[in-house]
Amino acid sequence: EVQLVESGGGLVQPGRSLKLSCAASGFTFSNYGMHWIRQAPTKGLEWVASISPSGGSTYYRDSVKGRFTISRDNAKSTLYLQMDSLRSEDTATYYCATRRLDYWGQGVMVTVSS
Amino acid sequence: DVVMTQTPPSLSVAIGQSVSISCKSSQSLVYSDGKTYLHWLLQSSGRSPKRLIYQVSNLDSGVPDRFSGTGSQKDFTLKISRVEAKDLGVYYCAQTTHFPNTFGAGTKLELK
Fold it and tell me: Which member of B50, B96, B99 has the closest CB to residue A100?
């Protein structure tokens, strides 16, 4: 059974950092490009970042470029999102998902507030 | 960025009715490999999104054939025949052809 399990969310002050993890199982993680996608409270889905299967290529939405870093450890079947200089507008549930959106995690809440 | 215009924003339906949701993209979604990476997702209340249809018209495993997807290039439609209670939630179209990947604003399907 395919599973994606996010962790690392929580309440953080503006300007601080947080690192999300997404542990994958049930499929060959190293063969899949991966996304982080977020959803602000009561809002729609917003793509955040993507990474190629090898980790050699990464892509970011403009509003997080220079602040967020997506990475992966294929040996551990784990995807990461390092979030620095957090802003209130980054408050959302963050999902990891496979490249073609066939598998999603349960989501992890990130709240940026003083 | 590719803008995905999804309509209507909400639908009020009776069980057994059929409905259609439209999704129009600002650019062609045909990728260089000839495939069209337009997908339909359903997010039930309090749940993660779940993909129902991939590449315009292919049903994911376990998705009943009451669901169907059609379209090409920039114009796509999701049809649900004989709506059941478990179909309720928010439907999103999504494109993974171009970066940044983008989503429609969603269509909330609720009971009349």
Answer: B96
